[in-house]
Amino acid sequence: MAREVKVYEVKDYRADIDSDWCPGCGDFGILAAIQQALYRLQIPPHKVAVCSGIGCSGKTPHYLRAYGFHTLHGRVLPFATGLKLANHGLTVIAVGGDGDGYGIGAGYFINAGRRNVDFTYIVFNNEVYGLTKGQAAPTLPRGAKTKSMPEENVQQGLNPIALAVGAGYTFVARGFALDVKHLSELIARGIAHRGSAFIDVLQTCPTYNDIHTREWYLGLDRPEKRPRLYKLEEAGFDPVVTDPEDPEEIRAKQISAIAKSYEWGERIPIGVFYQVELPTFEDNLREKGILGEVPLAEADPFSRDVTELVEALR
Ligand code: SF4
């Protein structure tokens, strides 16, 4: 008799825990988009591991039905890397805020891109440290002053897309937290991508960021109500490297992604900026014989003779 194949529903990815995010927070949209992406791909919840840093976004694994780890401030990517190497049969998703990832975790952010581990990193970019009362985070532009800041920001805001392309991420995208359908498509593409996928999500924080609000992104503050956000795919932008062996094409696509990422203010692009299929960190370790085909977590513990190793450690 043929075995029945389980078809997952969106609710299968929801944990039975009430959220304590503020009403109207963009985090709800990102959480829903992750759940919908997993549903689109029909990945069993027990094959998914979600880890987070510290901040409002750090609570995301609590609200998802999957393996979850709420890790240390700025350290989510080392955890995600370890998770993937220990059990490369899992779909690994790392989440965190812009302060967590681009501030305290900036070194990890850059070096994870260089490695190209097969995971998806989603950054909840609301430009403030929401959990600690709205201080300026690394993406807040110079001169901006949110309602909890006593003075204008005197530091330059960084460009995560340009940084990610330069660091070597092989899938680089930007989404909007309140366009859940589009964001879930981006996340599904990121998860399906073999390699490090990075998705910066413009996330509204109605409690502390009163500058880049839902109304501002959607252009409702303008007389003509013209949205600031537009989709790269609808504008004919081509992010995909067709020949990964061709360094000229890679460079050209990286340059056009970086140039496009500096468009901000009147018009703000969302969608995929850059994508290339290159060997992953796991592929490179496998080639050296360091990583096996079978995940360590599933390997037979008695299949290797470790006498020599034990003797060496005596
Ligand atoms: Fe969301 Fe901002 Fe509230 Fe945090 S402080 S839960 S980011 S609205």
Describe this structure in words.
By secondary structure, the chain is α/β, with parallel strands linked by helices. The chain has one domain: Rossmann fold. 31% of the residues lie in helices and 16% in strands. The protein contains 10 helices and 10 strands. It has an 8-stranded mixed sheet with strand order 2-1-3-4-8-7-10-9, sandwiched between helices. Strands 5-6 form a two-stranded antiparallel ribbon. Helix 3 (98-104) packs across helix 4 (106-115). It is globular and about 75 Å long. Bound molecules: iron/sulfur cluster. Iron/sulfur cluster is lined by residues 21-22, 25, 27, 56, 126, 130-131, 205-208.
Labels describing this entry:
10 strands; alpha/beta; Rossmann fold; globular; 10 helices; binds iron/sulfur cluster
Order of helices and strands: HEEHEHHEEEHEHEHEHEHH
Please state the second-level CATH architecture: 3-Layer(aba) Sandwich
Q: Terminal Cα separation, in Å? A: 54 Å
**Beta-strand content bin:** 15-25%
User: What ligand molecules are bound, each kind once?
Assistant: iron/sulfur cluster
Quick synopsis:
It is built from 10 helices and 10 strands. With 314 residues, the protein is an alpha/beta fold.
